[in-house]
Amino acid sequence: MSASPEESLVQQWTSEQARLRQQLVEEDTEDWQKSPGFSGLERVGGVDLSFIKGDDVNACAQLVVLSYPDLELLYENSQMVTLTAPYVAGFLAFRETPFLIEALQQLERDKPELLPQVVFVDGNGIFHYREFGLACHLGVLSGLPCVGVAKNLLQVQGVYKSEEHQSQIAALQKGGDSFPLTATSGKVLGKALRSSDKSSKPVYVSVGHKISLDAAVRLTHSCCRYRVPEPIRQEMVQ
């Protein structure tokens, strides 16, 4: 019996995801990442694809670039786009990444001096079913360091919204406090971070590409005035 079109697509995407996964770098590659105050980091980006309510085909692809450490807006680009790939859980990147890559490429063509040195992605990195979420996909294809920051917990690889998880959240006393998200394999896939003193609800940070988890968590905290890091939050208020 032949596979349905969607089954064939999922097989193709699974194979492509595994191929890209081999290129993933889960450690610091830039000098600024190893500096306690991120000395040398001047531009941080944020990307997101936001949908119109009730419409899962038309969306707004957004890219912002902020100065660092001041977090002042340097560049903003929003484009209405039409998604053609179907939604399949665990393969979100295949729907969304092409438009985010296009936004980065347009910036590189028009104003290369404003290209971000790191990109925050509204979604997960290696905290994913097959350890290759949207932030990893974008990082590998763009070649830029990427950090995944999710607002909701993806219940995956043995990480659940259990009583223990809730009590760990309650134990986060102040902005910057975090605890590891550990898979059943023992691998730490990310961290739950209390990003601001003002917000007791954590965000979920994971490595996208070319950055260590420690640097990703420190950088996320340093870019938060509120719960969500400014490069992602700015898109919501644009």
UniProtKB/TrEMBL annotation:
Q: Which domain of life is it from?
A: Eukaryota
Cite the CDD domains for this sequence. Endonuclease_V
Spans through the membrane: none
> What cofactor requirement does the entry state?
Mg(2+)
- GO molecular function terms attached to this record: DNA binding; metal ion binding; RNA endonuclease activity producing 5'-phosphomonoesters, hydrolytic mechanism; single-stranded RNA binding
Per the record, the major location class is cytoplasm
Extract the Pfam families matched here.
Endonuclease_5
Q: Single Gene Ontology BP term?
A: DNA repair
Which GO CC annotations does the UniProt entry carry? cytoplasmic stress granule; nucleolus
- Keywords of this protein's UniProt record, alphabetized? Cytoplasm, DNA-binding, Endonuclease, Hydrolase, Magnesium, Metal-binding, Nuclease, Nucleus, RNA-binding
What the entry lists under Gene3D superfamilies is as follows: archaeoglobus fulgidus dsm 4304 superfamily
What the entry lists under PANTHER family is as follows: ENDONUCLEASE V (PTHR28511)
Q: What does this protein do?
A: Endoribonuclease that specifically cleaves inosine-containing RNAs: cleaves RNA at the second phosphodiester bond 3' to inosine. Active against both single-stranded and double-stranded RNAs. Has strong preference for single-stranded RNAs (ssRNAs) toward double-stranded RNAs (dsRNAs). Cleaves mRNAs and tRNAs containing inosine. Also able to cleave structure-specific dsRNA substrates containing the specific sites 5'-IIUI-3' and 5'-UIUU-3'.
What does the record note on quaternary structure? Monomer. Interacts with PABPC1; the interaction is RNA-dependent and stimulates ENDOV activity.
Annotated family:
Belongs to the endonuclease V family.
State the protein's name.
Endonuclease V
Task: Please report the organism this UniProt entry assigns to the protein.
Answer: Scomber scombrus
What taxonomic lineage is listed for the species of origin? Eukaryota, Metazoa, Chordata, Craniata, Vertebrata
